[in-house]
Amino acid sequence: MRKIIQLLPVENWKYLRVIQLSGKEWNPFTGFLAYYREYAFPEFDQLDNAILESLRSFNVNAEYFLNEEILLENQAEIRLEKYESELSEIITIQINPKVNEELYKLAKVQDVYYYPREFKVEIFKGFNYTGINKYFHAYLEHKDLEKLISTITPIR
Question: Is 7 a domain residue?
Answer without folding.
Answer: no
